[in-house]
Amino acid sequence: MKVRTRFAPSPTGSPHIGNIRTAVFDYLFAMHEGGDFILRVEDTDRTRYVESSLGDMMKGLRWMGLDWTEGPDVGGDYGPYFQSERLEIYHKYAQQLIDEGKAYYCFCSKERLEEMRALQVAAKTPPGYDRKCRDLIPEEVAEKLKENPHPVIRFKMKREGVTEFEDVVRGKITFQNDIQDDFIAIKADGFPTYHFASIVDDHLMKITHVIRGSEWIASTPKHLQLYEAFGWEPPIWVHPELILDEKGKKLSKRSDTVTAFMSYIDAGYLPEAMLNFMATMGWSSGEDKKLFSKEELIEKFTLEGIVNHPAIFDLPKLNDLNGEYIRMKTSEELMVLIMPYMQKAGYVSENPSEEELKKLLEVTKLIHDRIVTLSEAPMLTEFFYKNDLEYEEKGLKRFKKDFWKEMMTHVKENLEACDDWTYTPLETAIKSTLDQMDIKVGDLMATTRMCITGRTWGPGLYECMEVIGKEECINRINRAMELY
RNA sequence: GGUCCAUUGGUGCAACGGUUAGCACGCAAGAUUCUCAAUCUUGUAAUAGGGGUUCGAUUCCCCUAUGGACUACCA
Question: What are the C-alpha distances in Å from A290 to residues A281, A312, A320, A322, A362?
Answer without folding.
Answer: 11, 17, 11, 12, 30
